Amino acid sequence: MAKPLKNSANNFLFRPSAQLSIKPAHLMRGSVENTSFASSLSVKTDGRVKKKLSPIFLSLFAVAASLALVLKPEIYAASFLDGLKLFASSVLPSLFPFLVLGKLFIASGGLGGVSNGFGKIFVKLFNVPKESGGIFLTALISGYPVGAKLVAEMHSKGALNADEAAATTAFTSLSGPLFIIGVIGGALLKNPKAAAIILLCHYASAITAGLCFKNKKKTDRARIESIQKPAALSDNIFGETISSAVSTVLLVGGLVALFNMLCDMALNGGILSLPAGLLTKITGDQNASAGILLSFIEMTRGVKELSASGDINFCLPLIAAAVTFGGLSVTVQCLAYLKPVGVSAAKYLKIKAVQSFFAWFFATVTIFLFKPFA
Q1: Is residue 16's pLDDT more than 70?
Q2: Is the pTM of this model over 0.85?
Q3: Residue 229 — pLDDT band, cuts 50, 70, 90?
């Protein structure tokens, strides 16, 4: 007859559960503290590495771009000038007048008047203060980066908190109709019907993104109602308005020209050759592939390449997505106003990625269902 196994400390099967689970309290605390310390140390170390890598990457990038500019000044100086011409012909006419008129509109209290009636829809849809309705209407007419600029101004006045500012950004980060209809539809595509589809899909994607990033927190109505009414108009209102508008267009124009030059550096340096080749195998169109990649850097330059594609049914949804995303140039423009408000670069890019996807989706569905170019 087999002997029963002894209930010994060495016999795992018959070891009492208390022996398996209970440790002295000081050992348990030490274990937890050590684990917590290791985890904290890992997070802090990762943070330090990221902080060190960012300046190194930016330094290397700045050195490489400066070296390219020094070695081929005639090419890249001309490229920068082309960017300024592009800005002057396509962006400035649709931006500067609305910056001036929009500033006067806000200073005179017009934004509050519009928000009282129009803004109630946005309170129900997005759970944001009614002032967001006025921001949407102004951004819809003016284009980038007016929406971000107004969000920052309303935040500074206390009309929007950080959460409301992020939610409002989701549906007010818009390109203007003059740019889409005049530049894209008129100068590039030479097709008003295509411009109308892009415009509608662009606005529809903004509303959809606003619903996706709807403010989940309760809005403090008492705080908003306690905000003082607009102060009396300054004696120098026109001078202040022009000065503000000039400051904005200098920022936008400089960034458009800079990123246009960086597009040429990326093309001439062969940085985009591999991804462009891979994309061409999928799209079958070199212009479309180059346009997709350049759109991530400078939107207007990318749209120009996309419009050279022969198939409008294929390129139009991509143009709608490119205009909606805006590229790095528009991203930097908007973050100049949104970062102090508390909207991080990651949050903004997440919003624009969702918004641009829906612009592409709506344009694709529209072409599939209605066949406007058949």
Answers
A1: no
A2: no
A3: low
Cis ω before 340 (30° cut-off from 0): no
Amino acid at 162: A
> How far apart, in whole angstroms, are the C-alpha atoms of residue 79 and residue 94?
22
Average pLDDT over residues 301-306: 92
* More reliable by pLDDT, 10 or 52: 52
Q: Name the token pair of 66.
A: 């400066």
Which conformational region is residue 342 in: left (phi greater than 0), alpha (psi within -120 to 50 degrees), or beta? left
| Contacts (Cβ under 8 Å, ≥6 apart) of 5 | 11, 13, 14
Q: Of 311, 368, 328, 367, nearest to 198 (Cα)?
A: 367
From the list 285, 295, 294, the residue with the least C-alpha distance to 320 is 295
Q: CB–CB of 313/367 below 8 Å?
A: yes
Give 135-154 as a 3 state SS string.
Answer: HHHHHHHHCCCHHHHHHHHH
CA 59, 61, 66: angle at the middle one, nearest 5? 95
Residues whose CB is less than 8 angstroms from the CB of residue 310 and which lie 6 or more positions away in sequence, other chains included: 285
Give the pLDDT of residue 207. 97
Spatial separation of the C-alpha atoms in residues 269 and 290, rounded to whole Å: 14
The whole-chain average pLDDT of the chain stands at 84
Structure tokens at 71: 């070695």
Q: Per residue in 34-69, is it b (16+ CB within 10 Å) or e — as a string?
A: eeeeeeeeeeeeeeeeeeeeeeeeeeeeeeebeebb
pLDDT number for residue 180: 95
Q: How far apart are CA 152 and CA 340, in angstroms?
A: 8
Residues 6+ away with beta carbon under 8 Å from 192: 181, 185, 186
Distance (Å) of CA 36 to CA 28, 39, 42: 12, 5, 10
Say which DSSP state 106 is in: H
